[in-house]
Every structure is written in structure tokens, then in C-alpha cells.
Amino acid sequence: MKSVLAGLDPANYRVHALHDPMRDWPETNCYTDLWIEVLNAMGLPPEAMLGFTLRQDFEGDQFTFFKPPLDDLEDFYGLSVGELSIFDDLEAHAEIQVSRGRLVLVEVDAFFLPDTREVSYRSAHSKTTIAINGIDSGAQRLAYFHNAGYFALDGEDYEGLFAMFRNSREGGHLFPYVEFAKLPQYPQAPSRTACAAILARHMQKRPLNNPFRQWGDDLPRQLDDLAARPEAYFHIYAFNTLRQFGANFDLLASHLEWLDSSTYAREIDASRLISRAAKTMQFQLARAVARRKFAGLAEAVDPMANAWDAIMQGLEAKTGARLAA
Asked: How far apart are alpha carbons 105 and 97 in whole angstroms?
């Protein structure tokens, strides 16, 4: 099977420490997790890219689905990522790009991904992003990065994954959105000095207003809506709110720790407070949904809002970065 990063074996692949099961949030979201493991497989530190987490905001109905900016991936690691135009069979495009040493990132249906066995595999349809590292259309085999690991699939899963895309050329379905990543010939880890400069740039683009206070103001309305929904909706809501900001600030803590754990000690502690509080509140919300009793949840937002203020004030003083006009 043709592969971009050779020598990887899904059976004994070692995930990065950012995906350690003992972390508050061993998985974050499919796109960020994917890049963590791609960089891990390349022998590069994914902690270096995580300054962008400062820019997460409350978007009115959800927290930002945080993703590493493509400019950061190029500036830090020499990775050039762009959209791949799909006008023929996705498999054919993927094989050509993989043979040229490019990873192919595509949004697929998790229904056919064996690594989601206890979540979506053969039980629920959901959109997720994988990075194809190896493909053999003749043998119907695929090796891919997804979430917190590196996996393989074949046979019926391969057929199911690509079936809808085969109809796209005839107009049966929309073509998928696909990116491809060109890897540098000689990968080099970024310096902490360079990363600190990018951290300051992201500080300039941080939210104007405290996102937790905005969320807290809107939370009673959201809880009323949640109470009127089936219990299963809780998981969708929690993923787009509590998990997004909990995992985001868990990664911010790791980024600051990687930069300089002594210099940023207070901001690291405040970031971890948000991470832990989000995890605790998720458990509380799950119980509240089961009992249909939501009293007291709004008060849990205040410590997170105060921690956000502490992070931003501390980093503003240490980086000298002001909000961009």
C-alpha cells in the first residue's frame, strides 16, 4: 500500500501525550486531534502550534470549533495545506496525491470508521475528518489518522466509506470538501521564541468580551431548550459547548507549559481550572438532563469566567499584546 509517512503500524502506533487517557480531555475535536497525531508521527512537537486556542469565543449558540490555522502549520512546521479540487473519483485523487507524498484530509461518515466502534461505527451517521496516509483501491485498504490515533480499514468499511463519493461524478451527491498537505522535505521543530511571537499575535485577536460571561448570560435559555429535547441531544450540545472549551483550555495549558512552565504558571493554572470545571459541569449537566432539574448550573460558569480574565490579563502583561483595532 502506498503511504506518505512510511513505517507506521496501526497495531502498535503510540499516540502523543496530548492524547493520554489520564488528561481531562483525551480527545478534543477531529481536526485538531488529527493534526496532533500527524505531527507526532513526523517527530514534531504539536504543543508548539496551540497558541491559537486563545482565540476561542462564544459564537451565540456554541463555542468555536477550534482548529489550527493553516498559516501556523506552515510557519511552524513547513506544512503547506490547501483545498484539493475533487472532480473525479475520490479514490483516484487520493491515490495520486498519496503517491506524490501528500496527506489527504477528507470529511467522511464515521459510520464506516472502525475506530469509532463504541460511538458511531455501524450505529450512527456523523461527519468527521480523517487524514489518509495510505491507500490501495485494488485491495480496498485504507490507513488513516483520526481522532487520537492511527488506524486501518478495509473490505465493507472501505466500500461504504467511498460509495457515496462514487456517485458524485454523476451528480448523485455533492463532492466532499478535501484538503491536501504537502510535507516539508526536511521537517524541523519550531523554536520556542518563534512560538512566543505567534502567541502574542493570537493575543491581539482574542475575543473582545469574556466568552464565558456571554455564555452564562444565555445559559438559562439554552437549558430551557435542552429540557425540551430528547435526552440524546445532551451529547450533541455538550460536544459543542463544554467539550469544546474544556479541551481548548486543556490544550492552552499544555502550550504554555511547553513554552515556559515557570513564566506562565498562573495562566497554566487558570487554563486547567477551566478544563476541569468544564468536565465537572458536563457530569452535572448529564445528571440534570436525566432528572430534568437544572437549578444551580448557571453559577458554575463564574469561576471559569474569572479564570479567563486572569489568563488574558496575565498574558497581556507578559506579551505586551493589545487587542487589534
From this structure: 11
Which residue do the cell numbers 436525566 mark? 290
Segment (H or E) for 152: strand 149-154
Statement to judge: residues 231 and 206 lie in one domain = yes
Whether 58 maps to a domain, the answer reads no
DSSP 121: T
Q: Indicate if 34 and 126 belong to the same structural domain.
A: yes
Q: What is the pLDDT of residue 2?
A: 87
pLDDT of residue 170: 61
252: part of which helix (H) or strand (E)? helix 244-260
Q: Give pLDDT, residue 293.
A: 85
In a domain, residue 315? The reply is yes
Q: Are residues 22 and 125 in the same domain?
A: yes
Dist CA 233 CA 249 (whole Å)? 24
SS3 content of the chain, % helix, strand, coil (to 5): 55, 15, 35
Amino acid identity at 303: P
The H or E element that residue 146 is part of is strand 141-146
Of 182, 205, 232, the one marking the end of a domain is 182
Cα–Cα–Cα angle for 57, 318, 53, rounded to 5 degrees: 25
Listing DSSP states for 72-124 in one string gives: HHHHHH--EEEEPP--S-HHHHHHHHHHTTEEEEEEEEGGG-GGGTTTTTTT-
Within the chain, which residues score under 70 in pLDDT?
167-172, 325
For residues 124 and 112, what is the distance between their CA atoms, to the nearest angstrom? 9
Task: Tell me which residue range forms the domain holding 93.
Answer: 2-43+80-182
Q: Which residues contact 65 (CB under 8 A, 6 or more apart)?
A: 29, 31, 240, 244
